[in-house]
Write a structure and sequence with these properties.
alpha/beta, 11-stranded mixed sheet, 10-stranded mixed sheet, 21 strands, 21% helix
Amino acid sequence: MSASVTTAKHPFVEALVAGGRALPQSPASWLNLRRAKALERANALSVPTTRDEEWRFTDLAPLNRLRVAPADHKAAVVDVAPFIVPEAALRLVFVDGVYAPVLSSRNALPAGVTVTTLGEGLSANPALIEPHLAAHANVEQQLFTAYNTAWLRDGAWVHVAKNVLLREPLHVLHIASRPDAASCPRCLIVAEAGSECTVIEDYVAATAEAYFTNTVTEISIQPQARVRHVRLQRESLAAIHIASCAVSLAKDASYVSQSVAFGARLSRYNLDVVHKGEGAQAMMDGLAMISGQQLADTHTTTDHLHANGRCTQLHKTIVGGSAHAVFNGKVLVRKGAQLTNSAQQSRNLLLSPNARVDTKPQLEIFADDVKCAHGATVGQLDAEQLFYLTCRGLPDVQARNLLTYAFGAEIVDRIPVKSLVAQLERSVMAQTQASI
């Protein structure tokens, strides 16, 4: 089925439509239908503005200054050495959204674990992919998710079979290498009942120029399965990064997320977790550390559909220069989701007089036997702690660096990959010294 394309209303959207129009049809007819539906929906949606409640703190005007073109279908060769995670059982590398086999490390995996491209997965076992691909992410209401789906030609495919426990992490590395390129990375993770895995989703840059990354991840965690999701955004400081992650939790399933954002001139991350079974659990940690003119916007939704759900969330921002951080976290407890226990904290540190934070934790509760709490703090470095450190001989700048580093390291240190923690701690320290 071919997709009809209407006239774009926005120059940036027009470039995206042109890229989607050029994609070849997939051998999977159901995927062509989903892509066509997504393109039709995307053309019915407008680019969000600050008049839209969900985007009121995030001005997408920088999109107007981008003259992006879709990256070509051949991956450039770049240096991956600075980003290698030695503990990883396998590394899949995508450059500008295109799979790069020469840069990937396709080691042997235990029986029942499949990590490959979506293209290869669709050829080998499409029945495993069809129930999940473009089935969890919100195509109906999110413009950028719809365009990513309309562009969908390949991506990362992670499948862990029933009762298989994979101890080593899997590393999905996305590298941006071309200025003015637009890419739409895609990742699909399915953990069958009783299984366990850790996936590192990593976005880095091999160029300091402007480009656009529009990424979507879908995660299906089936009964009693456990997925730990480490998400790193280390894009160019001139880039625009729009991302969406949709997580589906079945009965007694567990999702643990650590999300760290350092890069991009403008970044937006939507994380939507739906508790589709009783007793599902989620723990979501986030850290955004920005300075200069950066804007980092994180929107999360935790939707409790069934009883006995658990969720804890801690989101931190460190904001220097004239940067602007946004956090909007919604916890929704549906009628009948009794005995839900959900707690959310937003903690924000301002390092300069021009830094800005907008934080909005939300609770919407339609059940009467629940335990839910939320809170937000915005402040500067503690004067008493600074005084304590300087009285013991630390210079003022070093004392400020140490306190700022400790604030961010609380999130980074929870990542269960030692080499990655070391990489990120060096980045936190470097940015701390640059921001003070």
